[in-house]
Every structure is written in structure tokens, then in C-alpha cells.
Amino acid sequence: MRDHTLAAILIIMLPSFPSLRERNLQTLYGDTKVSTYTDVDKSPIGCVDRKVRPLVDLINSHPEYVTLSSCSGRVALFDPAGTTHSDVEQEVKGTEISGKGRGQWIYVTHDIEPDLGHQIILALNKVGQERLDACNTSSTEVKNSSDNNNEPQITFKHEPPLLHIGAASLEAGKKLLHIAKSICAMRESGLVVTDQRVTVELRTTGTLLCLPIMVQISSSLNDEELSKSISLIPNEDYIKSLADMANERMVQNEVLLDKLYHTVQNELFENKSNMKVSTNNDSKKDDTNQQYNITLQLLPPLNLWKSAVVVIPRNDNSTNVDLIAFGGQGIGPEMTTSNNGTSKRWDKIFRLAKRNGLWSECWDTITTDPSHESEEIQRKTYAGRFRIKQETSIGPREGHCACVMPSSNLPTKTNSAVLIFGGRTSGPLSPTNDLFLCTFTQSEEKNQRICLGKPLDIVGEPPQPRFGHTMLVLNNRNHLAVIAGGTGVNDDGKSVSLSSVYTLSHMNLLNNESAGSHFIWDRISDMPSPRSYHTAFIEETSNYMFVFGGLKEADDPFGSSDDDSSNMMMIQLPFSGKSNNIMNIDEPLPALIGSSTLKLDDLLLVVGGTNATTLSDAAEKDKQRPISIFTKEQDENKLARANISSVELLKQDEHSSGNIDLGSCVHHCLLALPKDDGSITSAVVVGGGVPSFSFGQSYAKSYVINVLRGDASKVTEIIPKLAQLSMEPTETMVSSNNKQEKEITGKTLTKTDVVLVEARRAKEVKNELDRLGFLDKRYKMVKVEDSNRLAIPFTEQFNVEASLSLKDMVVRVGLEMVPFSSSYMSKIKQKR
Fold first, then answer.
1. CA angle, 682 as apex, 678 and 687 as ends, to 5°?
2. Contact between 162 and 672 (Cβ < 8 Å)
């Protein structure tokens, strides 16, 4: 009977779930839908944690789930012998309220406390004083010192986030469990299934701390008087170090909650993304009701953050380009077969090509020209000839910047050239001020090489070594680039944010073309406040650079939470002919860390970034839009937020599906593309991600961003044209292991229908196909070469569009050369 009941749970909603959901929503919100919290529940703090509320609201807005309990993570002290006292009952609401038996929580916080060590020591000393007072008022004889040390130990705890969620069915519970375990690395999560309820427990022990602390009461005899004192074991210095460690893990808790929020949103809410589309109420003016529509095209992921990426146009066609990525931190693109998935700092140069409107299916690598290794050679660029000492690579590096040298008066056969500056080669105390010059030949295609080196002729004091700075190209006579801010190291050997601003220009000091030009560094000014991992853009009509967002203190991840980080900083550039008509900002631009900004004609595009702290409510989250557009108002030199009426992910073929995911779009690159169509303004967002500590790295997807002006009817006409400009539909190849199998066993490979899925989803998709009766067991599941995808064979009757359970997990449907399964081969041999 029980087996039949569980089978029913699999496909239908539990009869008890509607009442459970209604009851819990009434408790939380005083209503049957998500609204304002009542702040009355049975938890020790008496309400839902502020930091976990956005996630709780999101889960409760889904009709198949309801939260039963939640905790954003906490630091706590527990006294097993304690009793509830009136002075702590208000703050902690001890275990009599929570109904969990004996003992007392003597300290609880769900926040990151700068003076956490001091607060813990005060709480421990208070317990010691209470025990000492109880001992002094006791009518029994004073025990000896060794007996006094038998007082119960205080337990110090740091606990990661924990949620219990009721699911409407076993299928819904399994889906949420997959998100927690496979995507968010909450490995200890599980299901509790009964006839009446399916409960999903989301938990991890990755950052758990649980340690004993002794509050010792010592007795001593002085002048025939017995005196007693309180001491903590371990000592106070150890406890402060323990508190620092707990604070670091509280930061990791916030990273996990944010990742879980975006993953739940992308995986469980059909046709919804984490895009917060602006409305007319979002700003005072909406560019005279000009409508902007955004379409996104998925590109192969770079899987690197803090890389430096540039767009290199090809001379043979105005729309043929190469995306070139230098170094970065992460696991690297899928094409790197030598990489075992370990995050590292890269020294390679990667390329993604676009030819005749089609993007390559994967990144490849470009090698440097070894013909003049370590030799001094001269390279010709747009700006002139420069002597360099050739290098084989930039070295393992992250946090550097790159820009294409200005191309005014472009000679037709002159090499494209890129400047690369700064970055760190190891930890945060290893910034550099390396300057590289990289030139590209226009030869086609696979064997393309580049020339990379360090310029030899440099005049002026170079910038202080730094990473996390900005580097913008300049188009003004001899000026090439402007560099601002970043993270450096002060005289005490500590990381600091920098405020200095430098320009890099060039000049032929000898007035002799054959002698080559010199690079010239010039410190032009300082920003009003230091900043790193900020973003900036240049308003050329007024010769001002505008800087916003970022970190003010390199060693303080919460430094950008102050008000002045959102203020626009203006730095005047040293060019002649500047205008006095300086542009104004109608509303503050986003004060985010690791965001990016790009001027596209008269538009300002702002993408990605994250707040210094986890946002506490939906209104604050709405300010952090993954994509925002600002535009100049008519007849006014003022920027205002524009109205984005739609955001759509283009399907690259009839079988592709997916959600827009910009949740990890931090420390990425945003670059303009040449126009394919006069009405379409395009850019690419490449790379990005966050190191989620013990929860695993999270990498941002790469997209082409198409900004279209006009009403919906015009957009509808253009979208089919964009859909044709998707990734090149080249035939995939099976892995090298399968090639070897073909050579050994003869004609064991045959072409059949397969679904391509990400490796992390392969087992789930295979089991679902088998359950539905569409898994073609005659063939093996194989890995697609140079990718992290698997090809799973299916029968002809299967229709992925009609399968709601598989539609969002399938990347593509197609034909693939796959081997026969061992069991099928055995049957063939038996028939023979």
C-alpha cells in the first residue's frame, strides 16, 4: 500500500499540501500570498532572518513549495546549563519559546559583526559572573579548584544556511533537491518523505564550526581569604581569531544564499529570468517614451573571471571579428581538454571567432610567435613603430585590463594592436605594473599567431602596481589610454585601494620614423576617493571620465556600502577644446562591485555587478538590475534611466531552450560589436563569475546583447534575422575514447538521434527518458568532444518540446555518431 502511495505522490499533488501551504503563509505573512511579514514565529529570534527573506519570498511565490523553517546562518553561543533570564530573553528569546528543551542561547547573531570577538567575550564573562555569583551564594562548602572546572562547556557555533521546504509532490521535491546538491553544492541536503508530506532539507556542513569553550572559575587562598576569578579557555586572543573566522564564513553564507536565489529563480520559474525590467515609474523621465528591447544570444562560456577581453575587427569584412581573452581566473573554456575542472590563474590567450554572422561553437587558443623569443624586435601599429622585448605569454594573471589601440587614420595593412596593463600574478599582495604590447596578423585562420612583448622605450614614472583598475581607450591625438584606481600595496605591505589616474600616450621623440616611438606615462590627477573593481566611461564631448561603484577599501568587502560610493566621480582629461557643458546624471548610477559600463552611440549600457552586502528586500534588489540602459534626454545634457520594455533570449535552433542567467555576472568584460544592422546596437558580455569558497565556483554565461529601438512590432520583424546569427551549427564529434573504440571494434559507431545535455544534468535526463520509455538502450551515452556535454540516445517517438520535465534541461537535439551498448552487441553476436 505504501509503494502505491509513493507512486501517486510522484505524479500528483499531495492532498495535505494546500492546507500546509495556506497555514504557513498565514503564519509568515498573515495572508495566503507573499506580502509583508508578521514577524511573529517560534524561532529563537522571533521572525524570519532579514538576509534569507528574499529567498523565502521567492520559494513561497512558487505554487509547489512552501517554507517550513529557515535560517540565513548564524554565530551563536550555547550554555547547556543556562536558564532564560529577562535581560537576554528580549534579544535571544531562549529555548522556552523555541520549545527545544534545556539550555540557553547566550549569544546569537545572523549578521557580520565587526566587533564579534568582543561581544562573544562579554557574553562568556557574563556567564562566568553568573556562575561565580551562584557559587558565592551557595550554602554548601566551597569546592576545590579542580571541582570548579567541571562546569558545563559553552559551545561556540557557526552554522551555514538551513531551510526546510514543503513540496507539493515527490517530483517537485526531487527538482529542488537537485538544485541544492548538484548546482549549489549543498551536499548534505536530502528528502524526508511520508504519506502526508514531502520535506526538502537544504543544508551544508561546508562552513560549519562547532567548538567547546570553557568558562573556568578558579579559587585561591590569599591571607587566609578565599578569592575566586574567571578565566576563559582558550584565551581571549584565540576567541577573537575564532570570531574573525566566523565572520569570514558569514560572508560565504551570503554568497551561497545569493547563488541559491538566482538558481531557484532560473530553474523553477518558467520563462522568467532574474531580469528586473524597468517601468515608466522607475525614473522621472523615460526618454520621451522611447522603447528599448533587449535580445540575448548565448555564446560559448569563457569560465574565467577578471580576464581581459578585446574585440579585434577583421579587415576582410566589417562584421567579422575575433574576441580575444587574455588570462583570468577559473576553469577555462570547455575546449581545454587538458583542464581537469580545477580553478586556476591562466596565462593562455583564447579566441572566439565570428565569421559571416556565425559564431564558433567553442573557444580556441592562439599561440605567440616563437621566432624572436626574448629578442628585441620592432612592431608596426596604428600609432607607429615600437620596440619590444618579445615574451611567450603574459604569465598567469588576473585583474588586468586591455584595450585596442586607437585606429584613427588606419593604414590598410597595419597590424591590430592591443595594450595590456597590470593585474596580479599570485595573491592580493602581488600586483604588477607590467605593460604588454600585442599585435595580431590578419592571416587566416587556425594557425594564426600573435606577437607579444614588453615595450622597451617608456618615458615617465609608471603607475603603481595594481589590479582591479579600469583602462579606457582614448581617441585624442597621441593619447592611447587612461588608467584609474585599482588595488595596490602600501608601504606597510597591506592591500589598499588607489585613487591615482594615469594616461598612456606615445610620441616619436627623435622625429625619426625608423627609430620608433616612445610610450609616455603621465599622472594627470587623483579621484576624489580611492576605488577598485569600479566601472567608468568617457563622455568625449566634455572630455570627462565618469567613475562609479567599486570598493573604497581593498581589505574591506563592505566598503562600498557608504553613500559616497554611488556618487559619480568626474575626472577631467587633459585634452584641449573641452566643453563647459558637462553632462548631468538624472539619478545615481548603480553602486556595484565588478559591474561594467559601455557607451553605445548615445546610450550608456550597464551590466552585472553585485552589492557589497546581500540585499535585504525586494525593493533594494530591484535597484540591482543585471542590465540597465541610460540615455540622454532630448534637448538636455542629462542622463536618465531608459525604459526597457522586453528582454528575450533568442533560440539558436528549434530545439534549444534555456533561461537568461546573469546571476554571476561579476568581474566580466563588456565590449561593443560592429553593427550588423543599422537599427541594432550590439555588445558582448564575456566571462565573469565569483569564487563561492567551499560551495564551488560560479561562472557567468556569455551573451551577445542586442539593443533594439522601437515598438514591439518592429522588434518582431528583426528578431528572426537575429536568430539566424546564432552559433555555427557545426557537427559535433564524439570523444577520443569512442574514436579508439571504433578503431578496435570495427563498425560499432552509427548515427542516431540524441539529446545534448550538460554533464551535470546527464544522469537526471537519462533516468527521465528511461522512465518515459524513450531511452534508446541500443546505444551508449557518450561525451561530446571538447565540451562538457553528453549525448544521450532516444527513440524516434520522443518529442522534447512536449516534455515539460526535460524541455529546460536539453541544450540541443540532433544526430550523433555513438557506439552500440554492450548488451545490444551481445544480442547481435548471439543471433549470429
1. 165
2. no
Distance CA 436, CA 16 (A): 66
pLDDT one-digit tens code per residue, 292-306 = 888 898 899 999 999
Q: What is the pLDDT of residues 333-386, one digit of tens each?
A: 864 444 456 788 999 999 998 887 788 888 988 888 765 556 777 777 766 788
- Predicted local distance difference test score (pLDDT) of residue 282: 40
Side chain identity at 537, as an amino acid letter? Answer: F
Mean pLDDT of 547-553: 87
User: What's residue 258's pLDDT?
Assistant: 84
Reported in sequence order, the residue ranges of 391-466 that DSSP labels E, i.e. its strands, are 401-404, 416-421, 435-440, 449-455, 458-459
Amino acid at 600: L
Q: Where are the beta strands (DSSP E) in 300-423?
A: 304-305, 308-313, 321-330, 344-355, 358-359, 364-365, 367-368, 376-381, 384-390, 401-404, 416-421
69 forms beta bridges with: 164
Cα-Cα end-to-end distance for the chain? 46
Helices (H), 155-310: 170-178, 236-268
> Which whole-number Å values give the CA distances from 97 to 71, 94, 100, 344, 482, in the listed order?
17, 6, 8, 48, 60
Helix (H/G/I), strand (E/B), else coil: 319: coil
Which residue(s) pair with 390 in the sheet? Answer: 453
The x, y and z cell numbers of residue 228, run together, are: 575566586
Residue 63 in grid coordinates: 505554487
Highest mean pLDDT among 11-15, 289-293, 362-366, 759-763: 362-366
**Which phi and psi (to 5°) does residue 684 adopt?**
-125, 140
Contact status, residue 144 vs residue 83, Cβ threshold 8 Å:
no
- Cα gap 321→299, rounded to integer Å: 14
Residue 446 backbone dihedrals phi, psi, to 5 degrees: -70, -30
- 383 touches 507 (CB < 8 A): no
Give the integer Cα–Cα distance in Å for 432 and 421.
8
User: Is 80 exceeded by the pLDDT of residue 681?
Assistant: yes
On the question of pLDDT at 795 being above 50, the answer is yes
- Whether 590 has a pLDDT exceeding 80, the answer reads no
* Cell numbers given for 606: 550597464
Please list, in sequence order, all residues whose beta carbon lies within 8 angstroms of the beta carbon of residue 747, skipping any fewer than 6 positions away: none
57's CB contacts (< 8 A; 6+ apart) are: 34, 618
Q: Which residues are paired to 71 by β-bridges?
A: 162
Measured CA to CA, the distance from residue 608 to residue 667 in angstroms comes to: 8
Q: Is 147 helix (H, G, I), strand (E, B) or coil?
A: helix
Q: Of 283-287, 345-349, 402-406, 719-723, which one has max mean pLDDT?
A: 345-349
- DSSP for 173-226 reads HHHHHHIIIIIS--TT-EEEE-SS-EEEEE---TT-EEEEEEEEEEEEEETTEE
Which among 567, 562, 571, 617 has a CA at the least distance from the CA of 589? 567
Query: Tell me, what's the pLDDT at 820?
Result: 83
Residue-wise pLDDT tens digits, 592-625: 888 999 988 788 899 988 876 544 444 444 456 7
Please tell me what DSSP assigns to residue 180.
Answer: I
Question: What distance in Å separates the CA atoms of residue 247 and residue 90, rounded to the nearest whole number?
Answer: 24
Please report how many Cα atoms fall inside a 13 Å half-sphere around the Cα of residue 396, on the Cβ side. 12
List all residues 6 or more positions away from 274 whose beta carbon is below 8 Å from its beta carbon: 262, 265, 266, 626, 660, 661, 662, 663
Lowest mean pLDDT among 105-114, 335-344, 475-484: 335-344
Do residues 420 and 399 make contact, with C-beta atoms less than 8 angstroms apart?
A: no
Between CA 536 and CA 604 the distance in angstroms is: 11
Please state, in angstroms and rounded to a whole number, the distance separating the CA atoms of residues 206 and 490: 34
**Are 334 and 787 a contacting pair, CB within 8 Å?**
yes
pLDDT value for 585: 61
User: What does the mean pLDDT of the chain come to?
Assistant: 76
What is the spatial distance between Cα 779 and Cα 749, in angstroms, rounded to a whole number?
A: 9
**Beta-bridge partner residues of 605:** 598, 629
The residue whose grid cell reads 525614473 is: 283
Sign of CA dihedral 799, 801, 802, 806: positive
Contact criterion met (CB below 8 Å) for 661 and 258: no
What b/e string do you get for 169-201 counting C-beta neighbours within 10 Å, with b at 16 or more? bbbbbbbbbbbbbbbbbbeebbeebeeebbbbb
